[in-house]
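Blackboard transcription, Thursday session:
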Amino acid sequence: MAKRQLNRRQNWRIEKIQGERAARAAKREQQVLQELEGGDLGPERLGLVIAHFGVQVDVEAQDGEAVGEIFRCHLRANLPALVTGDRVVWRAGNQGIGVIVAQMPRSTELCRPNNHGQLKPVAANVDRIVIVFAPAPEPQANLIDRYLVAAEHAGIQPLLLLNKADLIDDHNRASLEALLTVYRSLDYPLLEVSAHGGDGMQRLQEALDGFTSVFVGQSGVGKSSLVNSLLPAARTRVGDLSDWSGQGTHTTTTARLYHFPNGGDLIDSPGIREFGLMHVSRDDVEAGFIEFRDLLGRCRFRDCKHDREPGCALLGALEEGRIQPQRMHSYRSIIASLPEDEY
Ligand code: GDP
Ligand code: ZN
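(Written on the board underneath:)
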C-alpha cells in the first residue's frame, strides 16, 4: 500500500515536471514565433514538407522565388501537427526561418501507433505503397496480406514488388508462382525486379514516376538496396547517413521525402517501412480483403465470424473457389492476432 502511494506520488511529480518542461518549451517557441511574426514576413507561398523535427519543418518552396529550395519553418501554435508529405502555405522570415501559416487538406494519411498506442499520422499524401517481398527471406503470404489490408484501409494503391528475381530457382519457383497467381487473380499490380540490376528497375521507376510512394516489407527483402538504386544521390544529399542505416547517435525516425529524377517522390523512414503492422479493427480487416467486398453483409447471421456458421457467404465462396484458401488463411490469422476487444 505504502509502495503504491509512493508510486502515485512519484508519478504525479514526474507528470508535473514534464508538464512544466512542456510549458516552458511552448513559451520559448511562442517567443520565437512572435519575433518572427513581428519582423517582415514574405508573401504567402505554397510548400511541401520534406522532413519534420518537432516544432520545425523543412519546407520545399513550390512557387514564387527559389522554387525547389528548402526553408526551415516554425509552426504556428494553432496548427495541427504536420508530417512529411504535407502541403502547406508558408511565409519566409527575415532571419532565414519561415513560418507555416496553413495546412492544405491531405488526400491520404499513413498512420502508426505512437508509444502510447494512439494512432498518429506519419506521412501525408502518399499514393503508392510498394510492398516488397523476395525469394529469400521466404515470403509470408499473411504478412503481404497485412500490408494489403493496411493499404486498402488507407485508400492507397498497393504495388506488389518481387525483388531478388535473380534468386528464383528450381527450388522456389513453384511456390513463388503459386503466390503470384493469387495476387494476379485479384488484379493487384505486380512487378519482378532485382535491385542488383536488370531491366526490371527501369519498369519499377516508370511505375513510380509521378506518384508519391513508400516502400514497406519484411526486413532483408531489399528495401534499402532498392531505394539506393532508385536514388543514388539520396545518401549524400541528405548528409546524414545515420538516417538510412537506422544506427548511430543521431538516428531520427522522422520520415523524409526525396524526389525521383523524372518526377515522383519517395517518403522513407524506418518507421514507415513497417507501418502495415498497425492496429486495425475486424471490420477494417474484412474490408481490406478486396474479394470479400461483394460478400460482406450477405451471411445469414449479421454477426457472422465466417468461421463455421451456416449460411456464411465467405465460406460459400471459399468452397466455390471464389476465395483462395491462402487468403482465407491470412484473414483468419490476422483476425486472431487482433487485440481481444476487437473480436
Ligand atoms: P532491407 O532490410 O529490406 O532494407 O534489405 P536490404 O536492402 O538491406 O537487403 C538485404 C540483403 O539482400 C542485402 O545483403 C542485399 O545485398 C541483398 N539484396 C537486395 N536486393 C537484392 C537483389 O535484387 N538480389 C540479390 N541477390 N540480393 C539482393
Ligand atoms: Zn460469414
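Lecturer's comment: The longest helix spans residues 2-38.
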